[in-house]
């Protein structure tokens, strides 16, 4: 990969000579040959070209266009993409696993995803100086071009696009709740669910016109603050209100062992999907309505409207902020198709058109397939290795740790267990669909 980049930059647009020059002083093009001096010089130029400038296309694409970021920007993006409303579903997992095993599994999952996140950071820049700025490129470098695309292309595109669709559903539905709480009964012209989806989509598309990843650092900061705020607000309200006398908080012990096993697998999936950010793991959705809808119905009689409205507003802001990060890989891929073919930066009007097109497409899918959250666990289980397994295997393939060493055993174990967990999550999702059923309805979001 380094050699290809060097040939483009050193040639100066001319045709390179394939033969060795007679004398290194006969021509200024001697470094293009195969003399003993040429090889280390070409490698040095390649190193500085990759580290300093990346490639020509990288200067034109939204993810790598601006390289003036810092550790704070990275922290904002990680927090905004890693903390979401799917964390509010953790109590559903705890009702099955109970407190002890729930805390153990949650702690282990947190340490696991933190380790794989560290692996991805270490693999970002290889020993040769080549920077892998995208998950797909890293997978192709580790597993080969064909295998890397086969393993990572569909999950990455699905996680980005599917999450944006889910955010439209969640954000639009929460807007409806917020408007109902603020306006109340006097409102004579309430918007339909589809119209609220459209309001959310238009807002997200307008904010998506920020040019690159660094330009949305402030948006990510706001998203991170709102995510932490509404998560904290939710559990604080629960602690203040205390336990309800007529509600059972334990699991149903009369269930058969088979059902309990499948429920445990589904609970593990909920815990696994609570951690996002490894190229945007799609959050899981339970089939009995949105999180904020359940929160609204559960606390509407014992909590002030101000608290519920504030929580809804925080969720709306977080969904709009998260949309920008999750959509960025799609924007980058669309612009890559243009720049690689035309060999010039994407014009402003076309960039606006690309982002508007994606927003409209996500809106159409959200309206046409309102039952998509029912299938999120099933398809998301296929994408779970992006977070838990692939980073371990890529570390082994690229870093080549010594066989049978502690590092070698650790990554092989985590990688294999991650693949097994992915299969179990898919099985649990299929069981959930079969046991609870799914209502197929098109163009009729509730």
UniProtKB/TrEMBL annotation:
Transmembrane intervals: 71-94, 101-121, 156-179, 216-237, 258-275, 306-331, 352-372, 378-396, 408-434
Main localization of the protein described in the UniProt heading: membrane
Subcellular location as annotated: Cell membrane; Endomembrane system
Family membership noted in the UniProt record: Belongs to the amino acid/polyamine transporter 2 family. Amino acid/auxin permease (AAAP) (TC 2.A.18.1) subfamily.
UniProt keyword terms in alphabetical order: Amino-acid transport, Auxin signaling pathway, Cell membrane, Membrane, Symport, Transmembrane, Transmembrane helix, Transport
A GO molecular-function annotation: symporter activity
Domain Amino acid transporter transmembrane: 68-285, 302-431
UniProt source species: Flemingia macrophylla
Protein's UniProt name: Amino acid transporter transmembrane domain-containing protein
One annotated Gene Ontology cellular component of this protein: endomembrane system
An annotated GO BP: auxin-activated signaling pathway
Domain of life: Eukaryota
Its membrane topology: Multi-pass membrane protein
Pfam families per UniProt: Aa_trans
Task performed by this protein: Carrier protein involved in proton-driven auxin influx. Mediates the formation of auxin gradient from developing leaves (site of auxin biosynthesis) to tips by contributing to the loading of auxin in vascular tissues and facilitating acropetal (base to tip) auxin transport within inner tissues of the root apex, and basipetal (tip to base) auxin transport within outer tissues of the root apex. May be involved in lateral roots and nodules formation.
InterPro entries attached to this UniProt entry: AA_transpt_TM (IPR013057)
Residue numbers spanned by region Disordered: 1-26
